[in-house]
Design brief:
430 residues; alpha/beta; UDP-n-acetylglucosamine1-carboxyvinyl-transferase, Chain; 2 domains; 14 helices; binds uridine-diphosphate-N-acetylglucosamine
Length: 430
Amino acid sequence: MEQYVIKGGAKLQGEVDISGAKNAALALIAAAIMTEDKVTITNLPDVRDINVLIESIQDIGAIVDRVDRNQVVIDGSKISSVTVDYEFIKKIRASYYLLGALLGRFNKAEVALPGGCDIGTRPIDQHIKGFNALGARVMIEHGMIKTKADELIGSHIYMDVVSVGATINVMLAAALANGRTVIENAAKEPHVVDVANMLNSMGANIKGAGTDVIRIKGVESLHGTEYAVIPDQIEAGTFMFAAAATRGNVLLKNVIPKHLEAISSKLLEIGCTIEEYDDAVRVIGNDNLRSTHVKTLPYPGYPTDMQPQIAVTLAVSRGTSIVTESIFENRFKYVAELVRMGANIKVEGNTAIINGVDELTGAEVSAPDLRAGAALVIAGLAAKGFTVVDDIIYIQRGYENFEVKLQKLGACIEKVNSEQEVAKFKLKVG
Ligand code: UD1
């Protein structure tokens, strides 16, 4: 089992290149199989979730040429099956995008029920409601979601909850439906806009992505394109809090500062300095960070995927902070691990009350999910002494070269595979 071993205390300094957004890329890969032409995707993050999704589309007959680590050419012309029962697909949440993509192109899809991070019950009723509205029947049988339509017909759909996944999934299917579709109460996340942009570059007619009403005029077919994934807002935010928590000074390159506004404004509130450039952001921490209140909300609110990272930073900032999680009900599992590192945090329902401490102390902790795992690494970087983070397979799902990027910023972190390697690291760095 791979682990990270960290010696805390180094202030992160220097520059880091942010990769393409995992959550956008997952949907773009699904969109790429909606045409018989070749689709080139660049700025693709080389992370486990992406690689699993690529293997699963290969499994149904797509030909994928991995030009290099961050670029693929996807040829969906030979897709021979609409059944995605690939062994690993259950492990990634976004496997459900193959439902919308295959339903749009073939009027039929069968995909293993999604898993992903255990951060709540994560229902898919809004996806099903959307497909039903387009005229598809949806059944869940033997761990598979099966959907079929004689013909997809455009419809007016009001989403009962703001859902990134359901908005994108319905957009995918509706792009090739007969007639017009309107999605109301749509999610406005940057990756929703990215998927609409790529589909439009393939000949789709989608307007309003990025607002809460998306209008789609179905087209007969889609054609090939070349498309670059947007920068990863969550990876960027994670490095921003790593810079703050270690009192460092880090320039993040290849970002869209607008997408980071909710994060930047919280960092400013707690006392960091932020410098914004066209496609870069600098975060400068200091020894006098202070408390704040934050509540997770759909975009443009503060992202739930950035909740554990801000909590770690607030755990070492002066005063009492309140963090409220309003999107997922099970997203404070990492708090028990932080408390073992000396944090003073009490969870009541969907709220964490954090009393800042002067310093955390290293411990052996386990990553409970992707983002919380990254947050525990930040905790280790800011803590005194050695921290070992177990179950880093979660972190590898969504962060490209995480430890390498941190090492370049001066962090004392290594990926290890055994107790002996942990001991060797401790001996080496003292
Ligand atoms: C996506 C992201 C995830 C992020 C989340 C919220 C991907 C692959 N994952 O997940 O990293 O944390 O957005 O920004 O992009 N809901 C329903 N019914 C549904 C769908 C969702 O009730 O049919 C609820 C969920 O339980 C949750 C809320 O809606 O409370 C938002 O979920 P959603 O935006 O759909 O999250 P995901 O797309 O699964």
